[in-house]
Amino acid sequence: MNCHNPISSMDIPERAKKIVLAGNPNVGKSVFFNALTGLYVDVSNFPGTTVDISVGKYKDSVVMDTPGVYGVSSFNDEERVARDVILFADVILNVVDAVHLERDLFLTQQIIDMGIPVVIALNMMDEVKRNGLKIDIEKLSKELGVEIIPTTATKKEGIEEVKAALDRAKVGNRIPQIKTLMDKVIDKVDIEAEALLVVEEDENVLSRHNLKNEYGKRDHIYKLRRDRVDTIVDAIITETNEGASFKTKLGRWMLKPLTGIPILLVALYLTYQLIGVFVAQTVVGITEEIIMGQYYYDFIMNILTNFVNEGSFIGQLLIGEFGILTMAPIYLFGLLLPLVVGFYFILSFMEDSGYLPRIAAMVDRLLTFFGLNGRAIIPIILGFGCVTMATITTRLLGSKRERFIATMLLGLAIPCSAQLGVIAGLIAPLGTKMFLLYAVSIFIVFVLTGTILNKIMPGESTDLLIDLPPIRMPILKNVLQKTYLKSKMFILEAGPLFVLGAVIITILQYTGALEIISDALAPITVGFLKLPKETAQTFIMGIIRRDFGAAGLNTLAQQGLLNPLQVVISLVAITLFVPCIAAIMVIFKERSWQESALIWIGSFVISFLAAGILAHIVL
Amino acid sequence: MTLDLANKGQKLEVVNIPDSSIRAQAIRLGIYEGARLICSEKLPAGPVILQNRMQEIAIGRNLAKKITIKSI
């Protein structure tokens, strides 16, 4: 082991052979991972990043999965992790999508150039036939100099052959000119594979070895590799017939606005039915109110009231209204968890089916107005489920600038599902006019804020450059596994922050600070927003839990303290100001301290300003 | 001319990709200086979709404006 190996800090036995799975996104790597490792898999966060790596055992070897990448380099976090895991592999199982050889073989050839023993699983052979392609596998194997096993992993075809071939993995045919370049720097690095990344100008590997970028010929090397891959592909593929299959057509329809928008609306409606109706009402009704709200609550109270007095500070902290053993787990597991699982299920389904990149391409133009590109649609859609988890996914955006804009828009103008339910219940009886007034107000603020941020933020956002994978029916098992991993990560990240939030609120309430803030807010609520004094308390509640705020308004409306216009004004304010305490904490964790403060304070100012302007127009 | 001016169905050759980071990412997806591709779809004022065999890539309109192509 050497000091430059980042995976040496992971919990892996010293002597075990490391088999690493590598491949482009959505090529079916996880099916092979599951087939090799079975049930006993450890998922751990890769040191220094936000990327999770699955590690399992196969015979005496350790098997590691990597995020799907198009090449070994460092354009983003996923790639940096994949790079480090691949660099220090003993054997690589490269999973290749047989239908997209010109794309996938670039990574294959790069791995071969590293000099690491490889076995190739040529996957999705069933689609090769269906698309009228013919691949000369024997010739491909001869060209690359490694063993190639044709597989259809989803039907378990070829998996046993792949397992058997792992022992026969060997170094393939490297591109001679690249090997010559590597030989010149080989004595400057610890292992041969790193020499390739040095000559490919990988900044992380260069800095790890205190090298300057003076051997670099990335463009030249990439071009050599691209030429070789194209030559191989031309030699081994014959197209037996052409003509778009139904899936290709469907892919096009999803892309074009004329057909894509109706398809998106149907998809969103189905999502709403699953998340907004089934999960938010039926499932949460059971998990939050019965399982957590009754069984769990009674259980905790029965035990703890024997030891602590509920009225004391410790009692309030543990089992009070916002207690860390009462509100925090009830909210986290009863309400948030089902919603998060539901949303990640839909998202993973869309991801694996190939639909997500097409939505991103379709809305790309629209989002450029806000300095975002199409990829930002993912956190925005997720925001309607839970702003906290959406904030975590802003990581996938290309630049700091985009992450800031997306986080601001999320915190400001996207109401989460917990809040949407109560808002809908409150506004529906008031008629279409009031609903439109509310929706248009939020929409205007969203568009204005996005446009202004895009104008005043320094720098430029990244451009859209994405692969549109073929449309496929996702495999349920993989979708479920992804959902599980992402939901688990969400709970692990947001959970502790939520507990901390509960502590802060209890302290504020116990010390009377909550009351003071509420009173201090009164001039704004009464004077500027033209609302009754009591709404201030509701706003504070809205910070703790977004739906608490909306629910508080419901009570005020029932008491006849708010007229319909005042309901709309207060809803606008409550929707716009920064979300619940968990979301605020996550924002502070994800963004820098200054940025988070700006987002937090900025959205308060904007929300009261917008609601105030509305009040002065309509009242 | 630049990629944003390509028409749907047009066969084209990529002449120049100015940004080195974009160039490196694009070449892995089969888009490089000298590559011959088809503009398979163009979204109204939005991304241009390039196709090479079964492979499709969406390129944002702003990026497309920076990529030089020629018709073949």
TrEMBL record, chain A:
PROSITE patterns: G_FEOB (PS51711). One of its GO terms (cellular component) is plasma membrane. It is a multi-pass membrane protein. Mg(2+) binds at residues 34-35, 37-38. Residues 16-172 form the FeoB-type G domain. GO terms for molecular function: ferrous iron transmembrane transporter activity; GTP binding; metal ion binding. It comes from the Bacteria. It holds the Pfam family Gate. It is found in: Cell membrane. The chain crosses the membrane at residues 258-279, 331-350, 370-392, 404-428, 434-453, 490-511, 567-588, 597-618. Keywords: Cell membrane, GTP-binding, Ion transport, Iron, Iron transport, Magnesium, Membrane, Metal-binding, Nucleotide-binding, Transmembrane, Transmembrane helix, Transport. GTP binds at residues 23-30, 48-52, 65-68, 123-126. PANTHER family: FE(2+) TRANSPORTER FEOB (PTHR43185:SF1), FERROUS IRON TRANSPORT PROTEIN B (PTHR43185). Belongs to the TRAFAC class TrmE-Era-EngA-EngB-Septin-like GTPase superfamily. FeoB GTPase (TC 9.A.8) family. NCBIfam families: feoB. Probable transporter of a GTP-driven Fe(2+) uptake system. This is Ferrous iron transport protein B. It comes from Crassaminicella thermophila. The lineage of its organism: Bacteria, Bacillati, Bacillota, Clostridia, Eubacteriales.
Automatic annotation (TrEMBL), chain B:
Pfam families: FeoA. The keyword DNA repair does not apply. GO terms for molecular function: transition metal ion binding. Residues 1-71 form the Ferrous iron transporter FeoA-like domain. Keywords: Iron. Signal peptide: none annotated. SMART domains: FeoA. InterPro entries: Fe-transptr_FeoA-like, FeoA_core_dom, Transcriptional_repressor_C. This is Ferrous iron transport protein A.
